[in-house]
Amino acid sequence: MFNCLNKKQNTIFNQHNILKLVKKYSSPLWIYDANIILKNIRKLRQFDVIRFAQKACSNIHILRLFRENGVKIDAVSLGEIERGLISGYNSINQGIIFTADVIDFLTLKKIKRYRIPVNVGSIDMLHQIGEVSPGHHIWLRINPKFGHGHNKKTNTGGEHSKHGIWDISLTIPLIKKYNFKLIGLHMHIGSGVDYSYLERACEEMVKQVLCFNFDIQMISTGGGLTIPYKLNERSFDIKKYFTLWNEARKKISSHLNHVVQLEIEPGRFLVAESGILVSEVRSVKKTSSRLFVLVNAGFNDLIRPVMYGSYHHISVISGDGRVLNEENTKETVVGGPLCESGDIFTQNSQGDIEVRMLPRVKPGDYLVFHDTGAYGASMSSNYNSRPLIPEILFEDGHFRVIRRRQTMEELLRLETHCV
Ligand SMILES: *Cc1c(COP(=O)(O)O)cnc(C)c1O
């Protein structure tokens, strides 16, 4: 983790590298460190299968990195299936699984053609898949009837959640009717793990298997593992998480009289800490009560603070080599360039403005948003007609561009060439 000045010279996210990249590719830009991703993969090796929920960071070069390191992927749209295929994944050993609560016609064709197992989240989907692809390999996504999230928008279980199947018994006649091959049961209780919820989730999983006598090969714990966004937050206790799920797996295995594999499906945990967003200060201004520092990245680039009130640590790099004074910090509101008053990176989940203690900066300095590897670039938009910004990956000792900056021409092309 970082101080408010970017002093961590022993990581690749040091001033020297950042200034070099900004000079070469200009800002704003995303930078990732492959080594951090590899380190996070190693932390989960106890699980039989690690499946990356690619919506957290779906760049195909990152997906390739996962594939080369034995990690499978989850796709939640036709586009994410395409990304998986182009990254070298296929249906062998369930390299890609499609998870959704709805499926459209084109996606049905795709999953049939490439024999991609589907993690089914609604009864309607069972009919729709069965009509097109009888005998298809499926998982069932259970609504655990309760949920948990770092924000109510990321709560994925309970009566108010649209995700998963509420009454799993309804699937039994349909599995028979369409001759589906049921591989496993899946549960994703939401982002931000609370251990008491976890115990309930494990119990619920065991209960569902025992109650309906599904003969399955695997169970999936979903994702939702947290990372320490704040300096004083603690790392996630993987050992405890594994132990709880492993107990559930053992109970299920002994009930079914054969080994059941344990799969984990994180997004955030694998990539969040591997990425930063670098922005340049373009204006420093004051009102009667506030000091605003406005940078050239907006919520079109990084939406988490605006959407969820998420905290991202911000550090500062001087653009002209002068020494910044960390002893003398000011309450600072950090915002972006968008023509929308909510384009503020320092706010809580209610939308109230918050402040950061930052040293005095001026236009030409850089603000670095930390831990933006998950739900950063993948949630970016073109709002305010702003092109997507570059992504740079540090791997095998050097930096390379894994997504170049979108051009204005590319952005407009859908409209200039609309027939
Ligand atoms: C989003 C999602 C995940 C990953 O969630 P994280 O909080 O990033 O770990 C896992 N599984 C499913 C089905 C998801 O939709």
From TrEMBL:
Q: Does the keyword Amino-acid biosynthesis apply?
A: yes
Annotated catalysed reactions: meso-2,6-diaminopimelate + H(+) = L-lysine + CO2
Q: Which cofactor does it need?
A: pyridoxal 5'-phosphate
Q: Does the keyword Disulfide bond apply?
A: no
Start and end residues of each Orn/DAP/Arg decarboxylase 2 N-terminal domain: 48-272
One Pfam family matching this protein: Orn_Arg_deC_N
Q: Which GO terms describe its biological process?
A: lysine biosynthetic process via diaminopimelate
The record ties this protein, via InterPro entries, to:
Ala_racemase/Decarboxylase_C, DAP_deCOOHase_LysA, De-COase2_N, Orn/DAP/Arg_de-COase, PLP-binding_barrel
Q: By its UniProt entry, which SUPFAM superfamilies does this protein fall under? A: Alanine racemase C-terminal domain-like, PLP-binding barrel
Q: Which UniProt keywords apply?
A: Amino-acid biosynthesis, Decarboxylase, Lyase, Lysine biosynthesis, Pyridoxal phosphate
Give the binding site residues for pyridoxal 5'-phosphate: G224, E265, P266, G267, R268, Y375
Q: Name the Enzyme Commission number(s) assigned to this protein.
A: 4.1.1.20
Superkingdom as given in the UniProt entry: Bacteria
Please list the GO terms describing molecular function.
diaminopimelate decarboxylase activity; pyridoxal phosphate binding
Name the top EC class. Answer: lyase
What pathway is it annotated to?
Answer: Amino-acid biosynthesis; L-lysine biosynthesis via DAP pathway; L-lysine from DL-2,6-diaminopimelate: step 1/1
The UniProt function text for this chain reads:
Specifically catalyzes the decarboxylation of meso-diaminopimelate (meso-DAP) to L-lysine.
> Which family does the UniProt entry place this protein in?
Belongs to the Orn/Lys/Arg decarboxylase class-II family. LysA subfamily.
Q: Which NCBIfam families match?
A: lysA
Task: State the protein's name.
Answer: Diaminopimelate decarboxylase
Q: Which gene encodes it?
A: lysA
